[in-house]
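hiii, so i know i said id send this last week but things got crazy w the move. better late than never?? heres the sequnce for the chain we talked about at the cafe, plus the structure i predicted for it. fair warning i was half asleep when i ran it
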Amino acid sequence: MNNYGTRSHALVRGQGCYLYDEQGQPYLDALSGIAVCGLGHSHPAVTKAISQQAAELLHISNLFNIGPQQALADKLCRAAKMERAFFSNSGAEANEAAIKIARKYGLQKGLAQPKILATHGSFHGRTLATLSATGNAKVQDGFLALRDSFVHVNYNDIDAIKQAAAENPEIVAILVEPIQGEGGVNTPASDYLEQLREICDQNQWLLMLDEIQTGNGRTGKYFAYQHSNILPDVLTTAKGLGNGVPIGACLARGLAAEILQPGNHGSTYGGNPLVCRAAEAVADALADGKLIQRAAVLGEKISSGISQGLSNNPLFVEVRGRGLMIGIELTQSCPELVELAWQQQLIINVTAANTIRLLPPLILSDEQADEIINKIVALVNQLSATHTAL
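okay and structure toks below
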């Protein structure tokens, strides 16, 4: 099916921070499979875990206790300061679990049509429920999203949330990204999450954080909410969780951890031995915090280097993000930069039409960070020269 449009290039092998095409040409990967391969490609610990588990047991279903699943749940709940975990096959499915928690919570409070507050510019998935939560009309178009279940307000706008609370007594939860990824790497005010926590406590709402893209060390903390002093009630994660194997998790604490009961939700493949062993290897690699701290340092290096390099470029607006989740906003649409970067053996992404998104592996070297800086600056300068000539 033509879900992904025309694709012009093929990649056949990966090692560390590099991907290789059919001719053996290397490309510096500044995208990590869209924030997935945080440990880079063919990481030895992940490879070993997958190989060992594949030789022992791939799948038995959740009719049985699964040792690697319990071990991974313990590690994730410790890292996130949560209490329970539900494992899925993707970030969208993890968010589906969070949405079901919120809806059942609302029904238990006696609300006939509980609503979840989400934000414009957000992206929570492409299933019908997560599509409805996503605050992007272009993504929703043509699918009759379940809009009656969600109230959308502007991101980073506390007053809009307070107004929505006054106008919608059916709201039972907030679902928000600590940093909006697909929306353009939008970074809110430093006290945004604290204010959301306060509003949720005042209204007896659940605070549900979508850390699909921001989690697992990406922003310089294990989870992005840890840049603040709050705890969410529900946290979802995926992408970097398995370094390439399909796994997601919905973590919860307190009342939210007790809402789903046997028969309320499930997954045939979710949390099977293979994916949990791979994700355990990722969790172990992040456990001492060194790679996560490194992400913070590298992110500052890349962000400041690009800001300085483009300071006099008329197309440059700003650099946003945290750690190795970086967005470079330009004044004009710039999708052609993806192909131009490919020609320079660099893999990047453009999101929200005019924002270059960088999501390199956490194992990036200083030299590779310098290469990203230099090539991005050169590419934007090339685009600017073309724009001026026109």
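btw The mean pLDDT is 95. thought thatd interest u
miss u guys!!
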